[in-house]
Design brief:
It contains 28 helices and 25 strands. It has 733 residues and is of the alpha+beta class. It has 6 domains: 58 residues, Alpha-Beta Plaits; 135 residues; 87 residues, Distorted Sandwich (Calcium-transporting ATPase, cytoplasmic transduction domain A); 147 residues, no CATH class; 130 residues, HAD superfamily/HAD-like (Rossmann fold, 3-Layer(aba) Sandwich), CATH 3.40.50; 114 residues, Calcium-transporting ATPase, cytoplasmic domain N, CATH 3.40.1110.10. Strands 5, 6, 7, 8, 9, 10, 11 and 12 form an 8-stranded antiparallel beta sheet that branches.
Length: 733
Amino acid sequence: MNIMRKSVPVLHLHCAACAKSVEDTIRNLQGVTSVAVNIASSVAIIEYMPEAVSLSHIREAVRAKGYDLLTDASDSSDTVEKIKADEYRELKKRTAGAIVLSLPTVIISMFFMNFSLSGMLVWILATPVVFWLGSGFFVRAAKQLRHGLASMDTLVALSTGIAYLFSVFNILFPDFWLDRGIQPHVYFETASVIIAFILLGRCLEEKAKGRASSSIKKLTGLQPKTVTLVQSNGRSVQIGVEQVVAGDIVLVKPGEKIAVDGTVTEGYSYIDESMLSGEPVPVPKQEKDKVYAGTINQKGSFRFKAEKTGAETLLAGIIRMVQDAQGSKAPIQKHVDKIAGIFVPVVISIAFASFAAWLLFGGTDGITHGLLALVTVLIIACPCALGLATPTAIMVGIGKAAEHGILIKDAESLETAKKINAVVLDKTGTVTEGKPAVTDVLWANGDNRQSSVLHSLEIQSEHPLAEAIVQYFDGEYERKVTGFESIYGKGIKGMVDGRTYFAGNIRLLAENHINTDEQLATAAKAFAMQAKTVVWFADEKNALALIVISDKMKESSRSAIKKLHDEGIVVYMLTGDNSATAKEIAAAAGIDDFRAEALPQQKADFIRQLQNQGKVTAMAGDGINDSAALAQADVSIAMGKGSDIAMDVAKMTIVSSDLSKIPVAIHISRQTVTVIRQNLFWAFVYNLIGIPVAAGLLYAFNGFLLSPMIAGGAMALSSVSVVCNSLRLRWIK
């Protein structure tokens, strides 16, 4: 049977338990072969048999569990982004409100509890925090309960709800406790602060997750909205890109983006294909050459026949690859939620078991001590420290990295960086500078008196390499050029002071019967062997100079690769450039292996091959053509002077584009993930010790019974300890 694969946005996901619920719901439907829900990007990748189940049926099943899928054609990416943006704005408002209202409850509870109306005042302040700003926890906990699930939302709802109700009871019926010789306390500030802390943690998490889809939007933006269609009668009309069909003739003007894939039928130009190859030098195009959507025309004008449109274009394929690769990821927080899925029901069971044990064996004070134990266990076991363990460490780790010019987007890279054993580098803009520059100029007999002529001639040229020559000779006196002519595929010529000059390749000189200096010719062959571009400059009789142009290797590349080797990491290089150039750069930089003439699909496939061999990969690149490979890699690193799309897809960005920062980034990531694990460890140890004490375990030995007030303080202390441990990252070298 036919199997379809769809990436579908999912709404209202808040934790790993939510993602698991959606996954299980879809997986259990007949006709679904596989499903993976990514909590980080809120996307479900579904493989199903359309003959057996429809997307609308899948959506109905998911809606019944309290979530939603955007499956309709009208559900555009803009709709998804708008919904997520609205949810994030609402979350920020709730977080700010909870913090503002919680602060006075803490101050009153600490310093003004003897004031006669203090209990009523904190009650008034805490009520909107718990039942309005924190209502989402109760709603989600109720939905999960209906389906037999429990998460951190369940613990938050139970602990804050019981603390609140218990406090209300103590205010309304204080004599119940006073008659039994117990001083009643209220715990409104505990409930309020718990809500504020957890909302803050969620807000930090959502901010990182919210960037996941921006790269897709920018990739889509590479395609123009309209094109110039050439009709059969020769007239040109503007139409929407979605109206273009295979066989249409499209006119492309200077500076325009190409809308669909096709073949040139008339004219010639240079096309910036860096989004595909990563190479900075535009590619010449003439009749019968292929052009691709998303690439940019330079100064020429041409017509081409549309062959692939819409979802069939190479650009659309890159977008799909990025979506699929991103959908296979999940942040470190999933481990916390998985543990919480077991931790929560265990804590609830312990709380009610404690109440039952006190009721049965506690004698006359059994109900009093049992109720206190129930509340105390739920308060002390609140997952506030768990909720803060990851985002606080990430914040400090990100700040430390930023001081080194390294931007870390989220926890995913931190989780896997310590396992990296293979680093894959793009060549252009990563290992090399990323733009052609003049490296050598050799003058015949050392005579450079005509340098101003060369400079003036190249100023007239539209060739991409001309800019490098003009920049090199910047400051030279500009001469008047007449009779300028651009000779396609060969070079340029023009007259200065009545004398004709040429600049171009060796064929241009040969066709004009120009003598080449033997010394220059020997040097030209040597530079060609190094995969460098050679431009000849001559008058009508003799070659005057040799200009050598190449993409220089960065000064930091060799030392950075050596540091990676010292860590036992194998280094590979991928490039769209030719084999000769790739071999030269790889040898000079000390790179272990390379792949040349690689397209975006092949780069992503190479990363996948390494992963299939058991390698944990890091990919570093700076171009749009690297975005699919970056998304596929376990840890993706963008060079900061590259494309916005590469930086959006990547989990790390090296602002300075200095390769030596990659070993530093890996080191900081390892430190940060270590602190995260320490935080989680101590958060659970705190619970393992605190819960039995709260249940009354020590009462049988020394008569000690932990009060909810102390439990609330211990809960706050656990959160503070997690934050302080995270702050240690600032001083770790």
